[in-house]
Amino acid sequence: MTEFNPTRFDYLIVGAGFAGSVLAERLASELGARVLIVDKRPHIGGNAYDRYDDAGILIHPYGPHIFHTNSKDVFDYLSNFTEWRPYQHRVLASVDGQELPIPINLDTVNKLYGLNLTSFQVEEFFESVAEKVEQVRTSEDVVVSKVGRDLYNKFFRGYTRKQWGLDPSELDASVTARVPTRTNRDDRYFADTYQAMPLHGYTRMFEQMLSHPNIKVMLNTDYREIVDIIPFDHMIYTGPVDAFFDFKYGKLPYRSLEFVHETHAREHFQPVGTVNYPNDYGYTRISEFKYITGQEHKHTSVVYEYPRAEGDPYYPVPRPENAELYKQYEAEAKAREDVTFVGRLATYRYYNMDQVVAQALTTFNKLRARHEARVSQTVTALEV
């Protein structure tokens, strides 16, 4: 690092979501670095930010964020900043007038078709309806090759068309490959080893993460407003990679969401945390926060999610032509020794929260190695 200068930061971090906050904490705590973290929003936490609404109910303004991971390292790291409330998310899909478990499991099939199959029999059922696909390329291929055309049409096609504005046959296989199919009665949405919610919410966890005295936070700020004014040694950028390079190769496609929040004067609005609507209405799902947070309250707050073509970038659109476009920006990013690109938007990938944390921790190890090499060079130069 350069000679200490009280007006100079070692790192300027753009974005106070998971990627930026984890790196700020690690750099400050482990290396003693002076970090300035800026965000154009009026709050920390990125899309995982939560707050109390006018009714006093803890909500997620940017839609439900359910924490789950198989990584002990990620879970142990975040446990430094929060206690946890065990929570296993359950989702129902509104199909043919019934609310049925999703991912598709034994109960889904039996209730939908009025059958009484066992786990062994439902496996045979899937095999009997599955369509042979020579090479799985698209999201449609993934589903019809596992559970056949009827279940695909009832549970996946409409939801995917709403969510992405494209037919599953036009989307990469990764979109629907994320959702498993089960032959037992396991109705949990996730099967990860660690499934829990921050006991006092995500925002409190981020506040703890960024509480180190070496970390300064600047909100309501576009980094371009201050990048030439505040001196720093290295930038960590977690925003959209195409915007960083002024869209020189064109705009990377994203899907956005519009969130409509409601509070109802009743104990509960629906039977589980989330209900999907693959075939009806303009929204894809309704989530009820009290299930997710465990809060007790006489009223309840829910959020409707409406997919949109324009708005804040939430989901990179996984198509081959978009991957090719990103490669041009990726090459530019790799050539920049003065900037480190990390996170969903900066690497144009759909990551779960734990994957972003893991990526940030890996990035920190690379930055630490860079730091130690620079310190070693400085010591050698002084000895000479």
UniProtKB/TrEMBL annotation:
One of its GO terms (cellular component) is cytosol. GO terms for molecular function: flavin adenine dinucleotide binding; UDP-galactopyranose mutase activity. The keyword Flavoprotein applies. InterPro entries: UDP-GALP_mutase, UDP-GalPyranose_mutase_C. Its EC number is 5.4.99.9. Residues 154-350 form the UDP-galactopyranose mutase C-terminal domain. Its cofactor is FAD. Keywords: FAD, Flavoprotein, Isomerase. PANTHER family: UDP-GALACTOPYRANOSE MUTASE. Belongs to the UDP-galactopyranose/dTDP-fucopyranose mutase family. This is UDP-galactopyranose mutase. It comes from Deinococcus maricopensis (strain DSM 21211 / LMG 22137 / NRRL B-23946 / LB-34).
